[in-house]
Amino acid sequence: MPQLQSTLGDFSVLPISVPGVPAYPKSTVHHLYVRKNTPKIPTPDDDRSLFLTNVPVDSTHLHIRSLFTSLVGAGRFESVTFEDERKPSSQALADLLPAQAVRLATHAKKRKRADDEDAEHAREEELARLPPTWNRPLRKAGGTAVVVLADEKSVERVLKSVAKANKTGKYPVWGEGLPAQSTILGAKWLKAHIRLNFPDTDLVEAAVNQFFTVYNNREKEAAELAKRLRNEPDEDGFVTVTSGGGRTAPAKRAQAEEARRKMLEKAEKKREELSNFYRFQLRERKKEEEAELVKRFEEDRRRVDAMREKRGKFRPES
Amino acid sequence: MTSSPAKRRKTDHSDGAVLSDAISAAVRQPTTFVLETAELLAESRFDYERSLEGVDELLRRLKTSIEAIETHEAIPINDAAKKLKKAHGVIVPFPEPGPPKDSNYKLAFSKPAAFNVVGSYVSRTMVKVQEDHAVDMIVVIPKEVLQEKDYLNLRYFYKRAYYAAKFAAALQIEFDGVADLTFESLNDNPLLPTVSLKPRKGDYRIRVIPCAPDGYFPKQKLGATAGLIRSGADDDKKAHAPTPFYNSTLKADGSYVPYLRVLKQAEKSCPAFKDACMLGRIWLRQRGFGGAMSRGGFGHFEWSVLMALLLQTGGRKETAALSPSLNPSQLFKATIQYLAATDFLKKPFILGSKEEGLEAIRESGPVIYDAPRQLNLAYKMSSSSGFLLQQFAKWTHALLNDKSVDQFAPTFITKVNQPALMFDLNASLDMPEDYAEATGSREKLWTFGNKVHNVLKRALGDRAKLVSVHTAGLPMWSPRDSQRLASDSTVSIGILFDPSNMSRTVDHGPPAEEKKEAEKFRRFWGEKSELRRFKDGSILETLIWTGSTPAELCEEIVRYILQLHLKIPTYSESLTFYTRGFASLVGKPTDAAAFAGARAAFETFEKDIRGLEDLPLHVRQLAPIAPELRNATIEPPAPGSPKHAPKPMDVVIFFEASGKWPDNLAAIQRAKIAFLLRIGTLLSEAKTNITTHLGLEDAQLETQNLAYLDVVYSNGVAFRLRIHSDLEEVLLDRRTKDKTLDQHLRTESATLLANFRRLYNHLPLHNQMIRTYTTRFPALSPTIRLLKRWFDSHKLSSHFPTDLIELLALHIFLAPHPWPQPSSPAVGFLRVLLFLAQWDWRSEPLVIDTSSYSNDASDETLSKVDASSAATRLEAWRNLDPAMNRVVLLVCTPGDPSGTSHTTLDGHPSPSKVVAARMTALARSATRVVREKGTAIGLPDAGRQLLFVPALSDFDILLHLNKKALKATSRVYEHDDPNDVEPHHSSGKFKNLDTRTGEMPLPLATHPARLLLNQLATTYAGPLVFFQGSEDDATIGAIWNPLVSRRSFRVNLLGNYKPVALAEGRKRKVESESESSGEEEDDLVEVDREAILAEVARIGGELVERIVVKGQ
User: Fold this and answer.
1) B247-292 per-position pLDDT tens digit
2) Partners of B643 in the beta sheet?
3) Which strands, in side-by-side order, build the sheet including B539-544?
4) How many angstroms separate the CA atoms of A166 and B243, rounded?
5) Chain A contact for B875, CB < 8 A?
6) Where is the signal peptide, in residue numbers (chain B) (predicted)?
């Protein structure tokens, strides 16, 4: 059946036919939206990748691979990255890097971190990661993914075959030809989750240890960096003055707060001793009290007015 | 403080009029109440011009037509009645017993001596909400047709009835087609038939009341002890039983005009008198009181006369008790105080100086004696209604002295006499048909009710704070009907338990030595009473009861004693109890032991933890935060077994303050894991009966709490331990306030901080608070459980933090006004529903105020919750977030004055606005049902079916889960391979089978059904809202969010969308060949419902049995 609408904005609409399951026997059509990938920050693979949105929530790498295989045949699909996977790992990295180091690193604007250093950090962090509790995470409903294909030509072929599918009404089938275990959700999936909630303690211990190794190293690095920076003028010729090189321990902070509180208390006490001492104070206090009284009265009146506006507040229930 | 005149002058001229208003109002009492009552009066004022239009004209016509009635000489009574029937078809409403057939008593008719309009029509004190508006006109029977001896043997009342019949005859001709004419017993007093005229236009009645001339009958002969109904011919005065009711009726019938004068004088001397009368009328009405005997016999008339008399007398040394310069609300309060403080049931309450002796005043019922007019104002009251009135006055008085709560609404707005909301035990009893004992001309039913009251009150003793017996009123009847229709002969019984005595199973009577007392006790209790010897050597008369709950005990006693004294068969159908409906919904009496067991297990756990020696930090506190450990779960806590995964109870552990925690949030979380691992190892080394499992949270961020430790005892009790780190809070707080950070990071930190505070600060406090109050109020725990059951059955629970539901229940115990604290779960539950129905959470915060109960020092550390600051805070939230995306309900507790820790989870309001509105709607319809059904809601079927059956048709989609599959899913063993879904891993599957027999499954904090729901809810947060009751509820409801059904296309829309144009385009193609319209339509998409449902079915797999879509 020919379609009137095969595009939506700059997306091509790829309808996927979804066979019914016992709980919902109706077979349905899912709409996937495809376009050439044009990210704001270009990467070398952009020319041969596609951007998908509205991916089904139960998508896996296998699902997407089989979908593209059915569109353009085998051998052209390279990889898929889902939105939740694409989340910059640098966020977690930044969290992991001791806070001071991050701040100081941004100070040294020109400092370029070599790519391999980044990769090294990522590897370290991967080891410190705790085991996942879901063996098959659900995708966000309406989420996106980026598919990398073999070459530029494949991209064109995919788009062409999408248009063809629209025209002929022969839609690719979701999850067709996949091995049974890769489609499993439901009871086994939840069971696995319950089991994965309690990982092997050795694994966890190793991850925690690895974390602290990295953490301690980085903290040391940061301290050294801070020390170095103390004597180095930045591009405008200013030298950043930092305190003592060490961190301000929270204990010290607590002490400072304590001291502040004591000081305030002292001042309060002194003030109290001198209140009711002069006549003008008495007079002023009285004035304040009166003002307070008037304020309260007005407030009450306002509240009653507000109650009146709401119906039924003054009508006894029957 | 003293101030010199000079100073005063200075302040004076700076003041405005507002100040003097404010001062005069605030000095004497809280202003709000005064302003509110003023508003209430303004709102309630009755529009006489409009509603009673033409009444004066009607009254004039009435007078003329009565005056025109032909007079006649005395003729025998029976002849007169016959003649009237023959001429006009009117049957003379003689009071029972009617005049004997052979009576030679004679009746005459001559023109009435006077006409007078009395009552609230003349004093203009009617209010809008009154049930019926009546204008009373008295018609004085002339002296010449009466004889002095007429006070004897109902003779006066025969004449009075004849007068009423004559009026009816005349009026039915005069007002034919204009008004409907009936007879009614004035104030349900069978002695006083009255003609009632209801104009076809207008919503009011005119009552024509024949009455005796002022002071015609000698009052000294009408004392309470005089017996005026004398049967037979003997004249021995002493032989006649006293007829106080008859005597008072006779006196009252001649006192209309004197009381009119009393009221007029009060109105003149005290400007606020009328308004105070109206307040009194509203107060009485909300409590079901009225002048009629079936409504307690204390109405507006009695109230205003009492107040008028108190303005003259009643104080010390015969001075006036009330000052005429008081304002209406003060007059009202003072009168309430008078009623609360005076025990007019035990001792006659005498106003003014009496001349006669006390014996002439004393009666068995309540006495409020007006000495100058020698009348007992309370003569229509029964002792039951006397007690009730006094209780109401006491409760209101207590309320008016409590400045921390809203005084106004409970006093005047709430409908108080709803038996289902008021009494712990309601029952109804049909009067046996052969019951014939009627004393002193009162109705048979009234006498019966009074007797029931007296018997029950004595039998229940201090178990009951209040025993109320209520009988129906007398019906009206048409003048042409030969006497009255049979009235409803049911007696409603309401009993209010005393929590401290209600569960007693053994009653001790007097010791055997006190012969007289013992004999009395034995006579009252019959065979039930037996002599028993007790440990302390005393030998007492004793009663043993077998019931296990207060309601059962009470029912047992009532059934027994009614059978003994009133010959009501024990299991008679005429006696119905309305309590069973709710009791069965919240478990068994043994549940208390289960809760105590859980608590004991926790104490063992605490000891085990504190006993660990090699912990790097010293344990400061171990705080439970699980509902099982505060007596608040629907099902009593049950330990795990090989068949049931143990359900861990949450506990948080606090260590001494330490500088060793790393200065980084993520590092703190990892350090906690290391810590937990250490505790786990130490525990399982120290105790052989403990296994520990380190579990991972479903955390999205590294800075969140990442892990917990499940500690499982071999007996199946499990705890889930999380560690508190004081540095974490400091760091989060600092990050939240750090202006140099990104906004989204700060919001994230704020959410984490709120989660942290909820988990480690508020929940431990909450746990402690609820536990304390469940021991203080025995009915609190079952009320909470019943309420949770309600939230469950309406599939609201998945949206409400369990602690919030507990707070809702606690609230009505802390602020029960206008009632006392509930002492049974059913009452507590229904009152929470009432509260929820009326709670306007959009503009009112809920303040849990424990100030009146916290007398122990530990509570002083908690800041007192201030209602006005809570209101300010809510206002600020509503201004900041008018769409209520962040805060919906505001519930301020002493532990959390900010009010959001119990109503937001993870930065999202829970419940959300939609769900909160649904809660209100459900509570409203529930209260409506309760209102309609009355006490019958307590019947087993009614209570359950009407209140606890969900309206599944409200949901767009229903997911029916497979219970068997869920159960299987809930059992996961440590030896299970998490990846055994992969075929090449499943080779070891059968080997595992052997090892796992008899093994305990892994702890399960969240039931699989709830796990699935949570996954679905996060995945489809945009388009769908899911509803589930208890965690294992196998029917999940869902509704489509109407706000996100159709929108223009962009990347990253939440939910599954299909192009609109596509669908419409198809349709258009079919209909015609015309081209599609404008381009901009092309970018519209709508929620692809079918695709979403297909996804849901795939996610649920075999767990979802079927998906039912509304309308399909």
Assistant:
1) 888 888 888 889 999 999 999 999 899 999 999 999 999 999 998 8
2) none
3) B506-511, B539-544, B530-533
4) 100
5) no
6) none
Nearest by CB: B1101 against A181, A187, A208: A187
Task: Report how far residue B658's alpha carbon sits from residue B615's, in angstroms, rounded to the nearest whole number.
Answer: 13
Cβ B590 vs Cβ B629: under 8 Å: no
pLDDT(A313) > 80: no
Given an 8 Å threshold on Cβ–Cβ distance, is A188 in contact with B1101?
yes
Q: Which of residues 37-76 of A touch B (CB under 8 A)?
A: 53-54, 56-58
Q: How far apart are the first and last CA of chain A?
A: 65
Q: Give CA B744 to chain center in angstroms.
A: 45
Mutate to test the interface with B, among A1, A138, A182, A194 (most CBs of B within 10 A): A194
Q: Find the distance separating the first CA and the last CA of chain B, reported in whole Å.
A: 79
Q: What is the 3-state secondary structure (H, E, C) of B938-990?
A: HCHHHHHHHHCCCCHHHCCEEEEECHHHHHHHHCCCCCCCCCCCCHHHHHHHH
Q: For B768-785, b where at least 16 C-beta lie within 10 A, e where not — what string?
A: bbbbbbbeebbbbbbbbb
Domains of chain B in start order, with CATH, are: 5-47 (no CATH), 48-254 (3.30.460.10), 419-475+485-586 (3.30.70), 587-763 (3.30.460), 777-950 (1.10.1410.10), 957-1109 (3.30.70)
Query: What own/partner pairs with CB < 8 Å and gap ≥ 24 does B44-49 have?
Result: B44/A314, B44/A316, B44/B127, B44/B128, B44/B129, B44/B278, B44/B282, B45/B127, B45/B128, B45/B278, B46/B124, B46/B126, B46/B127, B46/B128, B46/B130, B46/B133, B47/B128, B48/B121, B48/B124, B48/B126
Q: How far is B731 from chain A (nearest CA, A)?
A: 9
For residue A45, give the amino acid letter: D
Residue B337's closest CA among B294, B432, B401? B401
Query: What are the sequence ranges of the domains in chain A?
Result: 7-196, 278-308
CA dist., res. B680 & res. B692, Å (int): 6
Higher pLDDT among residues B304 and B238, named by residue: B304
Q: Please state, in angstroms and rounded to a whole number, the distance separating the CA atoms of residues A203 and A197.
A: 13
How far apart are alpha carbons B1087 and B1044 in whole angstroms? 8
Cβ-contact A219, A98 below 8 angstroms:
yes
Distance, in angstroms, between B738 CA and closest chain A CA? 13
* Cα angle B124-B126-B129, degrees, rounded to a multiple of 5: 155
**Is the torsion defined by CA of B718, B724, B728, B733 positive or negative?**
positive
> How far apart, in whole angstroms, are the C-alpha atoms of residue B1030 and residue B792?
5
Confidence of residue B113 (pLDDT cuts 50, 70, 90): confident
Between the alpha carbon of residue A157 and those of residues A168, B685, B864, B1001, the distances in Å are 16, 64, 71, 53
**Three-class DSSP category at B511:** strand
At A113 the pLDDT is 47
The two tokens of residue A310 are 């709401």
CA distance B1100 to chain A (A): 4
Q: ipTM score here?
A: 0.81
The overall average pLDDT reported for chain B is 84
Cα–Cα distance for residue pair B1088/A264, rounded to 1 Å: 62
Report the candidate in B315, B237, B774 with the shortest Cα–Cα distance to residue B499. B774
- Residue B978: predicted pLDDT: 62
Report the chain B residue with the minimal C-alpha distance to residue A203: B694
Cα dist. B425→A177, A268, B458, B935, B939 in Å?
A: 67, 58, 17, 9, 11
Nearest to A191 by CA among B645, B1107, B637: B645
Tokens of B385: 């209604």
The two structure tokens encoding residue B257: 């005009």
Chain centroid to CA B626: 28
Cα distances (angstroms) measured from residue B530 to each of B226, B506, B518, B533, B685: 41, 11, 10, 10, 59
Amino acid at the residue B364: S
